[in-house]
Design goal:
This protein has 398 residues and is of the alpha/beta class. The chain folds into two domains: 6-205 and 358-391, 3-Layer(aba) Sandwich (Aldehyde Dehydrogenase, Chain A, domain 1); 210-342, Aldehyde Dehydrogenase, Chain A, domain 2. 40% of the residues lie in helices and 20% in strands. It has helices at residues 6-22, 24-40, 45-51, 55-70, 109-120, 134-150, 167-172, 188-197, 220-232, 248-264, 273-278, 307-317, 330-339; strands spanning 78-83, 89-96, 99-104, 124-128, 158-160, 181-185, 210-214, 241-247, 268-271, 283-284, 298-304, 322-326, 344-347, 366-368, 376-378, 384-391. The strands form four sheets. It has a seven-stranded parallel sheet with strand order 10-9-11-8-7-12-13, with helices on both faces. The protein has a four-stranded parallel sheet with strand order 5-4-3-6, sandwiched between helices. It has a three-stranded antiparallel sheet with strand order 1-2-16, with no helix packed on it.
Length: 398
């Protein structure tokens, strides 16, 4: 895998994209079986939304593969080069991680994203999707694997555990002699289970408790649009806003219209005492609400005294995923950017952009809130490590 040329990888990725588009009916039929089974089990609407494929989503899957094909190949890239006083020429060069196991839930589009990113970065990938999406995942996997085999790529380049048996995960996570990295992508329960069982290094995020802070110097019309998008556009994903913080000097002007707009689309509001005095039709928030990733049309709200309190609240209650400030004050924005300890920090934009595709990275394996090796969207560069390549002319150490 590490020896494949960039032109060959890019041509195969484009062929994969074409296969998805040509076989969209095959994928949709498989997805309908998963949806029917999920409905029989009484799966929540937010979960069902993540499971559902459409022609539009299949087109987006294909576009992700095309975008990956257009990105610069990280493998072989020189990170740094220098010479030592004794004449050694040293290069720090990007190489694939090796074998990556990716464990994920509910979203079938993750199957194609992961195959595309792993293939371009020269890695072999083992996929273990959730049982609720098994038929959809298998359909996508079979189509993309057929493209690889037709191009004489080794079968071991891409594997999928085609079983709903939970014990398969237990076995997989003990294969530290064969697997270099595990990436769990799903709910907090899945991720904690992987951490408990794995003998293999992990890149992960537990949950996405994302905030938007509306500052006293915010354009309130802009703030309303950003907050609405961050919460409502797709509430069941890890980069959706879960907590809204508002400076006390603009709370009286901002919250009535904002919360009314949220209520009109069915958002349940859980708020502090100050917010309740401004807008009566809300529930009281508990401390646990500010620590909760709802993944639903539920929002916690708090009025804060100043920027300092907003930053403290985010760092204390958040999950270090994605947090935003809305302000026209440059100094305030810079302080927020420097002091909020999150993987992605925004000024005057929705947290919903924390996504490999939206960042122009082609796609992502997941979002990392770790601090070692990878942070934020895990895309091509994050799926590589490095080695030192050293050229000499007979030098010996004395």
């Amino acid at each position: 895998m590490a020896q494949l040329s960039s032109p060959k990888k890019d041509a195969i990725l484009k062929e994969m994209a074409l296969s998805l588009l040509k076989n969209k009916e095959f994928i949709l039929r498989a997805n309908k079986k998963d949806i029917a089974q999920a409905r029989r089990r009484g799966i929540a609407l937010a979960f069902l939304e993540r499971l559902t494929l459409s022609e539009k989503r299949i087109k987006e899957m294909a576009e992700c593969l095309i975008q990956i094909s257009r990105l610069k190949d990280p493998v072989g890239g020189v990170i740094k080069a220098w010479a030592t006083p004794n004449g050694l020429r040293i290069r720090k060069v990007r190489v694939p991680v090796g074998v990556i196991a990716i464990i994920y839930e509910s979203r079938p589009n993750v199957t194609s994203d992961c195959i595309g990113l792993a293939f371009k970065s020269g890695n072999s990938v083992i996929l273990r999707g959730g049982s609720e999406a098994l038929t959809s995942n298998l359909a996508i996997f079979k189509l993309l694997k057929a493209v690889l085999i037709n191009n004489r790529i080794p079968e071991g380049a891409v594997s999928l555990l085609a079983t709903a048996d939970r014990s398969a995960l237990d076995v997989l996570l003990k294969q530290d002699a064969f697997i270099d990295l595990v990436m769990p992508r799903g709910g907090e329960g899945l991720i904690r289970r992987v951490i408990k069982l794995s003998r293999i290094p992990i890149i992960k995020h537990y949950k996405g408790i994302c905030h938007v802070y509306v500052d006293e110097e915010a354009d309130l019309n802009m703030a309303q649009n950003i907050c609405f998008n961050a919460k409502v556009q797709r509430p069941g994903v890890c980069n959706a806003m879960e907590s809204l913080l508002v400076h006390e000097r603009v709370a009286g002007r901002f919250l009535p219209g904002m919360l009314k707009r949220f209520k009109q689309v069915g958002v349940e509001i859980r708020a502090d005492a100050v917010t309740k005095r401004i807008f009566k039709d809300v529930e009281s928030a508990t401390e646990s609400d500010y620590r909760t990733e709802y993944l639903d049309l539920i929002l916690s709200v708090k009025v804060v005294k100043d920027l300092k309190q907003a930053i403290w609240h985010i760092n204390h209650f958040g999950s270090h995923h994605s947090d935003a400030i809305v302000t026209d004050d440059a100094a305030t924005a810079q302080k927020f950017l420097k002091e909020v300890d999150s993987a992605c920090v925004y000024v005057n934009a929705s947290t919903r952009f924390t996504d490999g595709y939206q960042f122009g990275l082609g796609a992502e394996i997941g979002i990392s809130t770790d601090k070692l090796h990878a942070r934020g969207p895990v895309a091509l560069e994050e799926l590589t490590t490095y080695k030192y390549v050293v050229y000499g002319k007979g030098q010996i150490r004395t």
